[in-house]
Amino acid sequence: MKLNKFIYTIEKYLLIFIMYALVAVLFINVLFRFVFFIPSAWADELARFTFVWLVFLGASAAMYNWEHIDINLIDTILKKLIKGNEILYNKVLNAVKKFAVICTISYLAYLLVVYGQYLQKIIKLGTQSMFLGVGMVVPMSAVYICSALMLFHAVCYLIIPEHI
Question: Sign of the CA dihedral 83, 88, 94, 95?
Fold first, then answer.
């Protein structure tokens, strides 16, 4: 869990940096467009790329904090079915949460395999962005890298479920 927390700390600082960078780029874009009447295509592109990284890195940080959408339908049904036996309720609920984490791990592992193959094709093509000249692998790798981070966080919570 120490490594998990360390990785989350790095994610948190990267999120802060990317958020400030996004605000700065959008400010420049608005300034150029509405004050100087010169649209800046590079700022649009850079804002799009930073937003993609912000979203996927934020999803990874949310996985660490167990803050993704939580449907409490199962909790409610279990409370009605298991009345008065708090120990059994907690055991069943923990089993359900473990199952949810296993499903998440399975999905993320599958996503990494399939998207990894797709990303390799993008690397081979060498496609570059139109205005920044950056390889398209830079924004597209956000999905792969952040999914790997989410997978790591999920495996940590499967090993040590008390932290959920």
Answer: negative
Sign of the Cα pseudo-torsion (134, 140, 142, 144, in order): negative
pLDDT tens digits along 73-94: 888 888 888 888 888 988 888 8
Q: Measure Cα distances from 132 to 10, 85, 155 in Å.
A: 26, 61, 37
For 72-97, b/e burial (b = at least 16 CB within 10 A) is: eeeeeebeeebeeeeeebeeeeeeeb
**CA-based nearest residue to 56, from 161, 156, 151:** 151
Q: Which H or E run includes 92? A: helix 86-125
Q: For tokens 């950056």, what's the residue?
A: 134
With vertex at residue 133, the alpha carbon angle to CA 129 and CA 139, rounded to the nearest 5 degrees, is: 50
pTM: 0.87
Got the DSSP string for 9-61? HHHHHHHHHHHHHHHHHHHHHHIIIIIS----HHHHHHHHHHHHHHHHHHHHH
Q: What is the DSSP string of 55-91?
A: HHHHHHHHHHTT-S---THHHHHHHHHS-S-HHHHHH
